[in-house]
Specification:
This protein is about 25% helix and about 25% strand. It is of the alpha+beta class. It folds into 2 domains: about 350 residues, Beta-lactamase, CATH 3.40.710; about 120 residues, Calycin beta-barrel core domain (Lipocalin). Strand 17 and strand 18 form a beta hairpin. Helix 1 runs antiparallel to helix 10 and helix 2 crosses helix 6. It is globular. The relative contact order is 0.13.
Length: about 500
């Protein structure tokens, strides 16, 4: 997770005002995100191919690989564009043509006629993700095996299995993983990290719909290739790495999304694995706030990473605050530098962190700290529970059939550790609601992104509950239950 990268910096560092962006509006944006409790992990602003602000919320930093989820889809589109430009694939050929090994599994005429372009536009024959409907470790096979629910090339439906199948096509033709193919072709020349990678499906193919692990800066690098019309930039020679026609088509509206889009931004249309946005923008868009917003009229890019799964409408809040706090202040001319505002922005930048839990009461959990609680019979075989307290941090210790485990949490601060037996890096804080109640919030910040909440609440007799709630995509089911406990 935390490696030092040796790739060169593809962007000059710029001062916001010199590129027509007031430092004060960035400060206002960051402050509003905090006030709205948006769990932001990073914010990067680029103007005129200069990096004018990059802020990372501890424990994240500029070198941390972050799960980018559906931003991966845009990378798949870029790879398809490269292959199409070389004549190695035809966008209007049926996808099954490139997978003869699945010919026997594909007996639906609408699936058989679905083209690469249909899949790029999210106008595939499937209403929903195929590998979530068919139990088969071969996700590509499931795409061809599932009966069509609509005519390809018609209505938009967000089908991640379409992206995954396109990714498998890229990897089959190139003989490389998705990220290695793009990195070897042009991304490495731009400073894209050598450590970035993509999670795999059970058959060893890259998860083309959601698996990218990369730095926020890597996403900025990628977005600028499209902003630049498919060309390299800076000290490089302006080489055309993706055809200009393909890039134009990829970021223009190809599919209408009003019926299926999840909100105002998603109603603006869909290109080739890119979403359209308000104000003539487009974006790479991953769940929970993984964003690369490109505004070509302003030569501007914003990248965010986040975890908004606990916050209803969290991504809409990010957009709403950007349109309100930053967008109206983008100037076509350099501005006078406000030394006071810029200095304040740099100070705020240095102190960004994931917001820890905080409580107004001055409790020490006297009725639960140091006591051992038995956990009633449960399907996850959690046996006992102990809470220990050490001044400004504590530990929840428990045992189950997988062994003995502990999770540390900071009081008024985050403690970075490893989540019990899942092995994921996490940042955890907590506090006492009363002398008999503890609540802990754990941020999973690894190949999975999300939160796990833990609450211990007992009565005067030492009986109570160990209440858990998870908002993580895969796994952690034992932390999504209510357990009855009693003091031993």
């Amino acid at each position: 997770m935390e490696k030092i990268y040796k790739n060169h910096q593809p962007f000059e560092k710029g001062i916001p005002e010199e590129e027509g962006v007031p430092s004060e509006c960035i400060l206002s944006f960051l402050s509003a995100l905090y006030e709205y409790d948006v769990n932001i992990h990073s914010v990067l602003f680029f103007r005129n191919f200069k990096l004018i602000f990059d802020g990372y919320y501890k424990p994240f930093d500029e070198n941390t690989l972050h799960r980018m989820f559906s931003v991966t889809k845009s990378f798949v589109s870029a790879a398809v564009g490269v292959l199409a430009g070389r004549g190695e694939i035809d966008l209007d050929s049926p996808v099954i043509k490139y997978f003869p090994e699945y010919d026997r599994d594909c007996d639906d005429r609408f699936v058989r006629t679905a083209t690469i372009r249909h899949l790029l536009e999210m106008r595939s024959p499937h209403e929903k993700t195929a590998f979530k409907q068919i139990s088969d470790d071969d996700y590509v096979k499931s795409f061809f095996k599932l009966k069509a629910s609509k005519v390809p090339g018609t209505a938009f439906s967000y089908d991640t299995s379409a992206s995954h199948t396109l990714c498998a096509l890229v990897e089959k033709i190139s003989g490389k993983s998705l990220i290695d193919f793009l990195r070897d072709d042009f991304l490495r020349d731009l400073g894209f990290s050598d450590e970035a990678y993509c999670l795999k499906d059970p058959f060893g193919r890259s998860l083309g719909g959601s698996g990218l692990m990369a730095r926020p800066l890597d996403i900025g690098i990628f977005a600028h290739v499209f902003l630049n019309g498919g060309k390299l930039w800076g000290k490089l020679d302006g080489k055309q790495v993706i055809s200009e026609d393909y890039v134009k088509s990829a970021v223009l509206k190809q599919s209408e999304t009003v019926l299926k889009g999840g909100g105002r931004e998603e109603w603006q249309g869909y290109g080739y694995q890119f979403w359209r946005t308000l104000n003539n923008g487009y974006m790479c868009y991953g769940i929970a706030g993984q964003l690369a917003l490109v505004l070509p009229d302003f030569n501007f890019v914003m990248v965010t990473t986040a975890d908004t799964l606990d916050l209803k409408g969290g991504v809409d809040i990010i957009f709403g605050l950007f349109w309100e706090k930053v967008y109206p202040h983008l100037s076509s001319k350099p501005l006078s530098v406000s030394e006071k505002s810029f200095s304040k922005l740099m100070k705020v930048r240095e102190n960004l962190e994931i917001k820890p839990l905080s409580f107004s009461g001055n409790f020490f959990g006297e009725n639960i700290v140091g006591k051992k609680f038995s956990v009633f019979d449960n399907k996850f075989s959690i046996k006992d529970l102990v809470i220990n307290f050490y001044g400004d941090f504590g530990k929840i210790c428990f045992s189950c059939f997988k062994g003995d485990f502990e999770l540390s949490f900071g009081i008024g601060r985050q403690i970075v550790s490893e989540f019990p037996y899942y092995g994921y890096k996490c940042a955890t804080s907590g506090g006492f609601l009363s002398e008999s109640a503890l609540i802990v919030k754990c941020h999973i910040i690894d190949e999975e992104i999300g939160t796990v909440w833990l609450q211990v609440d007992v009565n005067d007799s030492g009986e109570g509950v160990f209440l858990t709630k998870k908002n993580v995509g895969i796994g952690f089911e034992e932390f999504n239950e209510c357990y009855i406990i009693t003091a031993v």
